[in-house]
Write a structure and sequence with these properties.
Length: about 325
């Protein structure tokens, strides 16, 4: 009888662990919504339709508030109320508006199909309850000025000096976005022990995985640059670039998210991948990933009409 009772107690104790060992699959998404379409005079319905097409479990929204007019390198403070609450209500999601002001935020929000528990100290992320697991999601919108691809290519954007070398671009990128990433790494400590951590956002800086020698030979980029922000995410913080895990060759699959408002051949602009989905978890695998946008071949999932000047990045992961 004692042995039977002990076996029953052991089984009861082990059952939750066995349940936790079952893999979890999530769809995640990062989307700069350009004021919910307001900056292009579009209804919020179009933004909702894009999110519904992906059907994410967690989605980070950037620029939930409209830009001022004019919005330039010297002055672009968000105006008006956030559309995150309205979007979440239409989708039946929980939401969190990032209300603080710091170098890593610009009118962002995090929406989740499951309950959001609490925000991090600097407002960059939230804890989320997902199928008995604790998941953290961070939404970052990093400074867009000075913008080093434009500096390297001689494209005017505010009073920024022209750059000629990879080292110069790296130094300028560190100065522009280093303080924001320092702040993020402080908040990231709150995710210690979490089952999974995701980082989404408009980084306003390309990835070192994209500006490679192979991309230069393919005519995708002007030179190879080991961009510092993406390197800190992958090398220092241990995150996987979910899109690049699925598509490791930037020459074959560039995944441009900036911009939908000009053609790739436009000499006054440069198309790039600056919107990211990163993930970190034990046994994390990428089931699929892709770009969501207004037309093929730039987008893997096409949604029309399209409300934003950015394309979205999405991934399905298992951990």
């Amino acid at each position: 009888m004692k042995r039977l009772l002990m076996a029953t107690l052991i089984a009861a104790t082990l059952l939750p662990a066995a349940t936790r060992a079952e893999p979890v699959e999530l769809t995640v998404m990062s989307f700069n919504i350009w004021g919910g379409g307001a900056n292009a005079g579009k209804p919020v319905d179009e933004t909702v339709a894009v999110i519904r097409a992906v059907d994410p479990d967690i989605v980070a929204l950037l620029e939930t508030r409209p830009e001022p007019d004019p919005c330039d390198a010297d002055n672009c403070v968000p105006t008006g109320p956030s559309v995150a609450k309205e979007i979440a209500g239409r989708l039946g999601y929980f939401y969190y508006d990032q209300a603080k002001q710091n170098p890593a935020l610009w009118g962002g929000a995090i929406l989740s199909r499951t309950p959001i528990l609490q925000p991090t100290a600097n407002d960059l992320g939230v804890a989320i309850e997902v199928k008995g697991r604790k998941v953290f999601a961070y939404a970052l919108h990093l400074p867009d000025f000075p913008y080093q691809p434009y500096q390297l290519l001689g494209i005017d954007y505010g009073p920024a000096p022209k750059l000629a070398t990879a080292d110069g671009a790296i130094a300028a990128a560190k100065a522009a976005r280093g303080p924001a990433i320092d702040l993020f790494l402080q908040d990231l400590k709150e995710a210690d022990g979490a089952d999974a951590v995701f980082v989404f956002g408009d980084f306003n800086e390309p990835s070192h995985l994209d500006w490679t020698e192979a991309a230069v030979k393919a005519g995708r980029q002007p030179l190879a640059v080991a961009w510092p922000t993406s390197r800190r995410l992958t090398d220092e913080a241990g995150f996987l670039d979910l899109f690049r895990v699925a598509y490791p060759d930037p020459a074959a699959k560039p995944g441009m998210t900036w911009t939908t408002t000009s053609e790739p051949t436009d000499p006054s602009d440069h198309h790039d991948r600056i919107d990211f989905t990163y993930g970190r978890a034990a046994g994390l695998t990428v089931v699929k990933a892709g770009i969501v946008g207004e037309k093929a071949p730039e987008a893997d999932l096409v949604v029309t009409p399209w409300p934003s000047d950015h394309r979205a990045s999405m991934a399905v992961v298992r951990f």
